[in-house]
Design goal:
heterodimer; A: mainly beta; seven-stranded mixed beta sheet; four-stranded antiparallel beta sheet; 11 strands; 55% strand; B: mainly beta
Chain lengths: 123, 106
């Protein structure tokens, strides 16, 4: 059974750095084609893709946030960590991690999601 | 960046209705298009991948079609448990979600 679980602070102050951890089981990030992504959703708003790390350690980021984001993986601990620098109240959101796997030819989809963790940015 | 535009942003429908949601990409994405369902307070769930393939366990009343820039998600006969938000997402270049469609009870 594939599971993912997000963890991190519920409250951070503006200008601080947010660190979120995704702990997963049931698959390996050393398996060809496997990836993990972070997605966020501000209250009442749409999903926003943030970052992705692939089995071969290739990394990609949202264009609008790339200067503030870093994603990394620890294949021994089965964890993926996202850091976001210089947070602002507009970064208040539920943050999800999801497994991305190859579903058809070279198409990838987020087929298993964590339950999400809510982060509030406020002084 | 590839922009994904969904329409409508919300709709009201009754149980048994046929519902269609559209998604348009700002450039051709072949069939690199996935659909997700999200219920309030829950994580999204993959419904359709590669534009028209049904994810395992998803009821057959859900279907997807399209290629290039224009895609549709159809619910053939809306059930009570289908009232939710729906998102398209492209994986042709990087990843982008559409703005979502909220399906409400009429």
């Amino acid at each position: 059974q594939v599971t993912l679980r997000e963890s991190g602070p519920a409250l951070v102050k503006p200008t601080q750095t947010l660190t979120l951890t995704c702990t997963f089981s049931g698959f390996s990030l050393t398996t060809s084609g496997m990836c993990v992504s972070w997605i966020r959703q501000p209250p009442g708003k749409a999903l926003e893709w943030l970052a992705r790390v692939d089995w071969d350690d290739d990394r990609s980021y949202s264009t609008s946030l790339k200067t503030r984001l870093t994603i990394s993986k620890d294949t021994y601990r089965n964890q993926v960590v996202l850091t976001m620098t210089n947070v602002d109240p507009v970064d208040t959101a539920t943050y999800y991690c999801a497994r991305i796997s190859p579903v058809h030819n070279s198409n990838y989809a987020m087929d298993v999601w964590g339950q999400g963790t809510t982060v509030t940015v406020s002084s | 960046d590839i922009q994904m535009t969904q329409s409508p942003s919300s709709l009201s429908a009754s149980v048994g209705d046929r519902v269609t949601i559209t998604c348009r990409a700002s450039q051709s994405i072949n069939t690199y298009l996935n659909w997700y369902q999200q219920k309030p307070g829950k994580a999204p769930r993959l419904l359709i991948y590669a534009a028209s393939s049904l994810q395992s366990g998803v009821p057959s009343r859900f279907s997807g079609s399209g290629s290039g820039t224009d895609f549709t998600l159809t619910i053939s006969s809306l059930q009570f448990e289908d009232f939710a938000s729906y998102y398209c997402q492209q994986s042709y270049i990087s990843l982008t979600f559409g703005g979502g469609t909220n399906v409400e009870i009429k």
